[in-house]
Amino acid sequence: MSRGLGRRAARAAGIAAGPDCLRPPRAHLSIGASQSVAADLDTAECAARGVEVIQRPLGGGSVWVDPGQTVVCVVFPAGSHPGRPAAVFDACLGPMLRVCTHFGLAARRVGEQDIWADGRKILGSGAATIGTSLVFATSILRRFDADAFAAVVRCPSPAFRDWLAEALADGMGDWSRAGAEPEDAALLPVLREAFAQAFGWSLVEGGLAGTEISAVEAARAELAEPPDGGTRRHVRYGIKVNQWRYVLEDAGQAPSLRLDVDAGRVRRIASDDAELSARLQACAGEPVARYRLEERLVQGGMSDEAARAVLDRLLRMTQDIPLAGEPA
Questions:
Q1: In the β-sheet with 257-262, what is the strand arrangement from edge to edge?
Q2: Fewer CB in a 10 Å sphere around the end CB: N or C, the chain?
Q3: DSSP E strands: which ranges in 61-211?
Q4: pLDDT tens string 178-219
Q5: Entry pTM
Q6: pLDDT by residue (tens digit) across 79-90?
Q7: Distance, CA of 290 to CA of 138 (rounded, Å)
Q8: How remote is the C-alpha of 160 from its chain's centroid?
Q9: CB atoms inside a 10 Å sphere around CB 92
Q10: Cα(87)–Cα(180) distance, rounded to whole angstroms?
Q11: For residue 243, what are the CA distances in angstroms to 19, 162, 239, 258, 297?
Q12: What is the SS3 assignment for 278?
């Protein structure tokens, strides 16, 4: 791990430890602090594939982490970080963006926590206060195994799983497709220089102190405890793909309704009832708004009453997700 000014000077000056990067040795799932494993994940499939589930001490949904990603972490001791987590994103995503563009990616920041390239999310991030330190962490998606992730998600139907895999492949970035992919040995010095310039650090090599090693071991023991989240899905009717895209299904009432929403618009829609599914296609490309969808359904031959019943369900499915935002 690199440290600003060396270990003793860093502690005296309150400078951060990092940045550093690593490749996870095997695939695992990181889930949010209040997330339900049983509701969100296919635990039998996780076990069959040897995918460990780790519950992190901060919120959010399921995050797939595997050797196809480079994980970057920066640890800010008490009194040395830029402020609250939102300020940390502003401070740390700037250097990460410069790293991406240095290697030729046409990258841009999307929302508070992500960087996109070639129309897809290529980097997500998180920040949290752990003990007396604030930690910023991000994962660069060199390759994203959409099929493996979709296979371990608890899905209401096989069709939902197919849609999810397709949406993940379309909406999540892949550095190997978006531009020339550097090795970690080439990435690390550029990463360190970007952060050194951003924060005014002078980085030197260093190691963990004994108390720090003990703290790491204690944290690992805590993370190894079985997750004990809630009983409801993180996204009530489905899963978040990226900042703007969600795949949802209401299978609790016949006929089922399945929806792929992107930037507040219906990207794809279907039902297990063939006749209803055919009528629903009139909604494709439309914003998720009652007056627009009702108009399309009625024009397609559905009665006012039937259209309202379908719309009530569609709007209920989307009530907890953002429906306004820039297109991908």
A1: 238-240, 245-250, 257-262, 265-270
A2: N
A3: 63-65, 69-76, 107-110, 114-117, 120-130, 133-141, 203-205
A4: 767 788 888 989 999 999 999 888 877 777 788 878 887 887
A5: 0.85
A6: 776 777 678 899
A7: 38
A8: 19
A9: 27
A10: 31
A11: 25, 20, 11, 19, 28
A12: helix
